[in-house]
Amino acid sequence: MLNILFAGNPTLWPNYEPALKTAFADAGLEFELSDSCDDPAIVDYIVFSPAGPIKDFSPFVRTKAVLNLWAGVESVVGNKTLTQPLTRMVDPGLREGMVEWVTGHVLRHHLGMDVHIHGQDGVWREGKVPPLARDRCVGILGLGELGAASGQALAGLNFDVAGWSRSQKSIEGIKCFSGEEGLRDVMARSEILVLLLPLTPETTNVLNSETLALMPKGTVIINPGRGPMIDDAALLNALNNGQISHATLDVFRVEPLPVDDPYWAHPNVTVTPHIAAETRVTSSARMVAENVRRAEANEPLMNVVDRSAGY
Ligand code: NDP
Ligand code: OXD
Prior knowledge:
The chain folds into 2 domains: 2-91 and 279-296, Rossmann fold (3-Layer(aba) Sandwich); 94-271, 3-Layer(aba) Sandwich (Rossmann fold). Helix 1 (13-26) packs across helix 9 (281-296) and helix 2 crosses helix 4 (145-156). The radius of gyration is 21 Å and the shape is elongated. 31% of the residues lie in helices and 17% in strands. It is of the alpha/beta class.
């Protein structure tokens, strides 16, 4: 009998309890699932999220894996008490949600929708025909689960998509770049740039005054990745001098974004409240159960975090 502890956001327990029970049973596991435990020493697996109660993993001496419900692991990967294998969330529902959010926001800026949505003032504005997608360069920083899927969806709409990753990739429909030179190449061609990197020391402030200056004047920034990948002062400066025409930001250094943050009031910034993509309960429960099944069968876990890379 496996003891599995749900240590995610407590408000999600009523949804996750039945979904995880179904998924573990379907995976053929014998288990006790609980959202609390009196004795950490008997816990075999932890279903984890940074919004949950566990900050110290050291009492969980028998735990075979910590299964993160989030894709991003920056808030747990450096936890010195975490010695157990850590997996991150790769979930079809999360991926689909991100593809939809990215595609919607890219299309908004590509088509110049705001001019007409906010311009219902009786003025017949002609001459605002957008180029075809095939003539619009979109850049994606990060070509992992979410970046590659979003890039491929945009390529499917004919956008001219280029992407950047740590290792060199070959992905149908996407011009792939890597390395410092590759970053400069992607920045220099992107009229719309989407950030889907994980937050690590290497990706912190990847958008700064130097890299923003490489971009074509009037570029749009879309950030569903993580807030600290942008040097906020540099972005605000670039927005104020027109180097960047708009920023759609879903993630921030401080969340919730404080009410007096300059992003809220900036006319060329759209703030969304970290809703780009959410881990979906049913599909993610299946991913968690599959990993527990694998561990019990001595098969390699899926989506193990590389602690040295930080993602
Ligand atoms: P993956 O780990 O699958 O992909 C990360 C990509 O970034 C990989 O292509 C990786 O390169 C690349 N990368 C990492 N470090 C560097 C670097 N130093 N230089 C260049 N490229 C780098 O992550 P996901 O696609 O699953 O998720 C990406 C991020 O999206 C998450 O970490 C999270 O922060 C964010 N997110 C936001 C959500 C929201 O609602 N706003 C929801 C879910 C996730 P390589 O392929 O070579 O490893
Ligand atoms: C995630 C997120 O990392 O929701 O999963 O941001």
